[in-house]
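Posting this for the archive.
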Amino acid sequence: MNATRNKSVVITNLITESLSMAWQSIKVNKLRAVLTLFGLSIGIFSIVAVFTAVDALENGIRKNIASLGSDVLYIQKWPWSFENDYKWWEYAKRPVPTLDDYAAIEKKVSSAELTAFSVSTMRTIKFGRRVYEQGGIWANTYNFIKLRNLEIIDGRYFSPTEYYSGKNVCIIGADVAKNLFGKQRPIDQYITIEGKKVRVVGLLKKEGAGMIGGSLDDLVLLPMTFARNIFDIRSDNLNPFIMVKGRADVPLEQLKEEIRSLLRKRHGLKPGQKDDFSINQSSMILAGVNQIFKIINLAGWVIGGFSLLVGGFGIANIMFVSVKERTNQIGIQKAIGAKNIFILLEFLFEGIILALLGGIVGIVLVFILIQLVGFAFDFQLMFTIENLLFGITVSTFAGIISALWPAYTAARLNPVEAINTTF
């Protein structure tokens, strides 16, 4: 037990003394240390900043995809992913989904729990003299709220009476409210769409910029029963589509096949003829997103890797210079009993400390960048604990790799030759 304890004390003292010597060396050469860690700071800043931005982008996209619903099917004219023999003119000739298709699915597809019909378009929205030209119109049947999570922070959703009687009511997104009403409460105010007065009954919570166009911030939601009086909902330009959510006890593939069978029959398609509609789901987008982010992450490693390589060479170069300058000192240390492992750890710790200081500076720069981006743009970057640990780990690893050979060279010096070396 005593032997083990003594061994632990010896190892602890060895590490402590090596760290102390390494830190003293860095303090003596402050300017050189600052110039050395600057290169690695840029490397750590580059790689952590890239991955922080990629994480924010990926989280935003995945959040948008999640809002589509993993258990919801979208019947549309165009597919979300194309086959290898894609011929756009064949897709262009397809009919758009109709309200009759929607009614048939709702009535005859036993696997369906919820169904909704939607159209969307861009229109100028007015309130008094204020005009919002970036606004979108999204008209839906009543069940839409059960298929898409709507966070209404003021007011309410359409009542059944309002919907079925075709009342001129709407729910607006945060950007629409900000541009048209400013700090004024929009509830029960009237906006103008296509010359029609529409009463605002609900205000949506701000979602932030949608990475794939999924944000509701710049939209006005209308009941389909009202929208069909001012828009041609059969127009291809309004991108009609049907949303279908299956029962919990029914596999998605079974729901898909039921819908396909019904629509093929309704559209008079013969065996062997291709479908003249697309049944899309969020997993189709997710598969493509996963592939894209594999490439982006690889690119991030390449960009950051080159920066780290430059910083690592800087540390290695300075460490070799340090070994040369302190050759006499190393000889004296060995002559009075310092072991090779002590010399090796001294220089190794010096390289690691330099790298860690460089990494911390790089991480601080990333944090500052995040604050600036959040202040200047409607895009929130999150500095996660994972990215912090990643930056520290990469810095430590870079320090070890950069300092290992100089430290090994110093540890192998002959004490007599080292003492007598002159420069």
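The chain is about 55% helix and 15% strand. Residues 282-325 form the longest helix (44 residues).
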